[in-house]
Here is the input.
Amino acid sequence: MSIRDGILALLQERPSYGYRLRAEFEQRTGATWPLNVGQVYTTLGRLERDGLVESAGEDAEGHVYYRCTEGGGAQALDWFRTPVSRLDRPRDELAIKIALAVRAPGVEALEVIQRQRSETISSLRDLTALKRQGGEEEVGWTLIVDAMVFQAEAEVSWLDHCEARIRSGLPDPGSNEPDRGGDVSPRPAAVAERGGKTDE
Amino acid sequence: MSIRDGILALLQERPSYGYRLRAEFEQRTGATWPLNVGQVYTTLGRLERDGLVESAGEDAEGHVYYRCTEGGGAQALDWFRTPVSRLDRPRDELAIKIALAVRAPGVEALEVIQRQRSETISSLRDLTALKRQGGEEEVGWTLIVDAMVFQAEAEVSWLDHCEARIRSGLPDPGSNEPDRGGDVSPRPAAVAERGGKTDE
DNA sequence: CGCCACGTGCATACCTGGTATACATACTGA
DNA sequence: TCAGTATGTATACCAGGTATGCACGTGGCG
Here is the structure.
């Protein structure tokens, strides 16, 4: 319910209209996940249906304003107050993929892991570059990029962990070439220097 | 598309029917995210519509079997081969919440962070307990629990990071009570001892 | 001037993920 | 015998997400 609650939180600050809500949401969260306008209108409709927001008429330019009702404001504050549980998170597609790959016939789990690690390390580079160029402008955006960096680093660690467990668990039953040489991505080690850079 | 592709991957191993697919999926991934049966049937319908699976008739007990078509098998292998990008991941509700909280009037971002950290550390304890009791049974399940542990640890680190940035960025403009005393959760420090325990 | 592209703003259709529920059958135990 | 439970299939409904259509205004350009 992150979009619904996010829009509700924005409306709790001040009344607004669809297009501007989208702009505000993207400005605060940094266009990391671009928000489709259509999503805003359907969400506003549902919020109005549930009595959390109400229409506040149009202004001179024809913008359809919505404002938070009392119940809506309470729910927005409640959303901030309630921590998100680990249980109500979406499924981790990568975890599922690896879990299925370790047993799937015709699929080399180690190759899947290596390919994924390359991809993740690559996006990690992009993220640090992004962080370097984009300055202090918007606090929320910086924090979100940091969140993705932390998650990507954890992902790399986990992939290493998976590889170690698989290698130890089934020490190459078919062929005996424990070091595939060429396409094996190098050990991370130089993944990021997050601790220092961020707080300067 | 994790469910769709996951079911396709299972069918690529061998033909099966709805209820058993759900059981297999949960067995491999560890019932971490319990999969609703209804989801399986709607997904099977869509896969059949798209020509990736085909009905293979019923057996003596009346089980409606599905089998992978050629195209479906190719797509399943393709799913394993293609790494998941950072871009096509679902929005991180927690990141959005924090990003909006830092500016929202009437919301103390630091309190939100502290509450969340308590929650995350708590679930981290649950996860390590889970890992300790559940033995080596299923490889995939162990890896998925590990993935959640790594993510939760990264989340705690990120929350600390957020707190530090907020404290340095806005050194208590309104009220001057930098230490709220009682309900402030203690520093983590004893979060987990993942490095050693996992590989024993 | 007329037209075209573009930004802004609203609305809808459609797909997937996710949950609940209905419904049927078979086994099991009080 | 009847209730409860496990197995199995199917459908309805909601929310998230994307694409698209439609309208309006403005500014450029032949």
